[in-house]
Amino acid sequence: MLDVGRRLNPECEHVEGDMRTLRVGRTFDAVFVHDAVSYITEENDLRAVVETAYAHLRPGGAALFVPDWVRETFVPSTTHGGNDGEGRALRFVECDWDPDPNDTTYVAGFAYLLRDTDGSVRVEHDRHVMGLFPRTVWIQILETPGSEPASSAPSTARRSARISSWECIANRVPRRPRPGSRPLPGPPEGRPRPARRT
User: Buried b / exposed e across 159-172, counting CB within 10 Å, b at 16+?
Assistant: First the structure.
């Protein structure tokens, strides 16, 4: 995946890491966490992801999280797609369902039809356990002491053939600390804190 990313976006820096613990020693105006956050299935891990985002924000910076679903928008669904290449092709079906509505996960099952250059076709299956948190949990975690109030809204960009739209959950780090607030997580010990932009 990193090799593909580097080929498609050679002007971007690519860093492999765990979103719960990664620290690159720099801060940014914005941090965008897209649907990979859906692989977080425990609340304490979700909190660690948010701390990672905040650790990389400059004062006044914004963090945007876009999970595939939140509990309130989840609908069991089936979607499909695919592509044709030079002599090869792929078709897939994705089925999302929630075996236990009382926990924080759902299941995404994938079936793939892969046609090779010699015309042979094989079938592969993949099963992913994904995170499914209520908006209130997202908001509570994002409203870390020292941050601004968080907000949540459905995205206007709909995923192709999907019943529900993505949820956009955002928060901002204040330009100046509030009186009595704890500092937000910063770069790890031993690394200098990057200079503030003026």
Answer: eeebebebbbbbbb
CB 62 within 8 A of CB 149: no
Number of Cβ within a 10 Å radius of residue 66: 18
pLDDT in tens, 157-166: 444 333 344 5
pLDDT in tens, 103-125: 999 999 999 999 999 999 999 99
Cβ neighbors of 134 (< 8 A, separation 6 or more) are 70, 71, 72
Give the amino acid at 12.
C
Domains of the chain: 2-71+132-172 (3.40.50.150), 77-129 (2.20.130.10)
